[in-house]
Amino acid sequence: MAIDAATAARRGRLRLPSAPLIWLSLPLVLLVGVAVLAPLLPLDGARVQDLNAVLQPPVWAGGSWSHPLGSDQLGRDVLARLILGARLTFAIAGASMVAGLVPGTLLGLLAGYAGGPVDRVISRLADAQLAIPALLLAMAVVASRGNSVSVLVFVFALASWPQYARVVRAEVGSLRERPFVMGLRAAGLRERRIALRHVLPNVFGIVVVVATLQTGTIVLAESAVSFLGFGVTPPDISWGQMLADGKDLLTSAWWVAVIPGLAIALVVLNVSLLGDALATEMDPRRKR
Amino acid sequence: MTAGDLLLKIEDLKVTASVAGVDTDLIAGVSLNIPRARIIGVIGESGSGKTTLARSIIGLLESNVRVSGGGMTLEGEPLATARDFARIRGAKVGLIMQEAKASLDPLIRIDRQMREVARQHRDRTASIGVAGHADLLERLGFLPSDIQRVMRSYPHELSGGMAQRIAIALALIPGPSMLIADECTSALDVTTQAEVVTVIQGLVTDLGLSILFVTHDLSLAAGLCDELVVMHRGEVVELGATSSMISAPEHPYTQSLLAAR
User: Fold this and answer.
1) A284 to B94: CB separation less than 8 angstroms, yes or no
2) CB-based contact, B116 to chain A, within 8 Å
3) B-interface mutation test, from A14, A178, A185, A206, most B Cβ less than 10 A away
4) In chain B, where are the structural domains located?
5) What is the ipTM of this complex?
6) pLDDT digit string, tens, across residues A133-152
7) What is the pTM of this model?
8) Which alpha helices (H) appear in chain A, and where do they start and end?
9) Residue B70 C-alpha, separation from nearest chain A C-alpha, in angstroms
10) A153: number of CA atoms within 13 Å, CB side?
């Protein structure tokens, strides 16, 4: 009977997401939850300097419970900074990813599906965008528009849309020649509907792959611009900024850089695995 | 409108492909009358222009291929502009292709694909004398006990013969007067081929549809079609009732096709 219920759920309109999808979403949901609730937590140690307790090691490396993940060169608590820093890191990475993905995917779809002059214009724009180094662009925009989270998101989105556009354009170019597109045209469906409702879902898998790669790139780019001093600046905290702050201490107090670095790596890995599970969920042929 | 009335008239149709600025005629002046409720077989080897002919009837030629001369009328109305073709595509003329599975969107269940076609056009399944999509599938030879499962399936979960009958069902929903079957049985084994052929014959005798049956398989066409059109290098070399052509082929190319059978 249990099998029957599961089969019924799978065949029904409202399908339950598969087990890997739930397990892979869980850590991200938890992290985002903690990040959202961070202002309610007792995290004064994140910004308060305590020069009597600088560079305390984490608790398992001989430190004390007053600084479970150690403290940095100004005596600020690494755990508290990690939790508060998650807010900006997630907000910037998530918003930049979406802001690059949506226009990039749609422009790639348009270029790949329409072809001809439309394709040439969009492809040249993407090439031109890729020719400008993202860091240089970030400096120019920050210099003229000032330094804020929305400016950073704008710059990262601007730097990442061509990645989606190029990959989606190539994929759509090959999908367009598949018999099912001919079948839909012959059935009298309009081109716009075929492109948006039938071709677009078929590129979802590849968009997810690009998005996970881009999320990692954005987190690292944010650390790079913070390091150069025109990204997230104190008193605001981000993981990238923590990583940049700690990198000179790598030989003496490794935890200041390694802990935010590990956090970035784990989150990017989680996003990547989740993206893969999501792509599998979307494609009935990949399910077992 | 009775059987034998003229449905589609093709007059001196020329179709030209341009590759790197060089024009090549894919179809060099073909004239053809397709009456109602008949199966017309278009026979020829690869490259004879039979698929190009089929595609030009619904205005779905490759981007570098164009109609360069002649004209077509469907039920007396001209087929020339993009609007003309958009009006008849699916609604009046349906297309069934060789790889049925590949001709269905791989990410969408069968029942949703049927509903989508029904929404795009006026759902005229009722005019076929069936009550709804499940009934239509039963009419096309699906087992009643199997229909719910089939409708909830994705294309890759179907066999080639099932997918081809689904493709036929999708084409029938808008209530067309003609179907173009482009090598629609070539990828199927002999038993499944026979099933699909039976379904197609039923469409003609029961629903009065005309079928343009494009194939390279002369034996199959000889058994199924009322009339045969033999194409060779973009031209019609022989055309006539099946029985007389099989017993007394006039053109040397038809004779060689028959000899090779």
Assistant:
1) no
2) yes
3) A185
4) 101-175
5) 0.88
6) 888 888 888 888 877 888 88
7) 0.82
8) 2-11, 19-37, 78-114, 116-131, 134-145, 149-175, 179-186, 191-193, 200-202, 204-227, 239-246, 255-282
9) 22
10) 16
